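pinging the channel bc i need a second pair of eyes. not urgent but kinda urgent?? the chain im working w is below, pasted from the shared doc
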Amino acid sequence: MKKWLIFILLIGFFSCKKNKIDLSGAQPVKINDFITAFPILPIPFTASDTNISKIGDTTTIGYAAFDQFIPDSILKNIFSKEKNIIIHPVGRIEKTKEIYLLASFTKKKKTELATFVLNKKNEFLAAKTLLSSINDDDYGHSVSINKEPTFLISKEKTNSDKQLQFSRVGWVYNTGNKFMVVMNDGNEAPEKSVIINPIDTLPHKNKYSANYAIDDKNFVSVRDGRNPNTYIFFLHIEKKEGGCVGELKGTLRMKAASSGAYQENGDPCIVNFIFSNSKVDIKETGSCGNRRGMNCMIDESFDRKKDKKPVKKKL
């Protein structure tokens, strides 16, 4: 009886040893083995700069294994050199069209958390660094993820008056194979809340391409798209003394001579644009809650601004 028991245990031991998946990268890794190394991520998920090094599975994935599925140029944006990096799978989020993989990258005392997007053919689409354990400021940093998923990256601190100062930026993956900002909120002092217009320098030769504004904090920039019937736009609003802050960047498609709409597949946010020679009326008709404060809507009229003429230098 004892001999049979020992025999059965030995079979179990060698079977487990044989079936153990090698994720070191010393030999080719199957894509399904790579993906299933990431456990399903419980949503909502939150991590901070103080616990980032402790989250994730105890499994280690070799850089060479990661490099088989994620471009080396992307990985080097996290750490410039691959030597002595310890990679742990944190989790995965499976959606209808994409798979999100979260992994932590540790080198010495620094840990970075990043997400990678693959399509259903397991082809790489995009990546974004979410959090770092070491920062050059006195803020507390964190990231929270909901089921969409939206990646809400936050930083906050208590100032000398014992008041909380914070900023929160929401990021989503869009169909253009990149991450984009869908929400920007905070109560920082104006000098620390610089509004960056990401499309300011793009061409604006088409009929409705221009800057439209109420003031410096409520404006929309419209720039030339791929053809006369499409425009790229960037919208920023700050209302109710900072109680309503929102941003939206995307492509609007003209549906008539002077009207168009922003509407993307899978995105509940729909925004209509009605142009005239002197202004643009913008109204939210879908659900754009991730783009602005929850107690306000996108419903504004912006006056068209004249282009600034270049100053001629005196000879």
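so Residues 1-136 form one domain. and The CA atoms of residues 73 and 80 lie 9 Å apart. — does that match what u expected or am i reading it wrong
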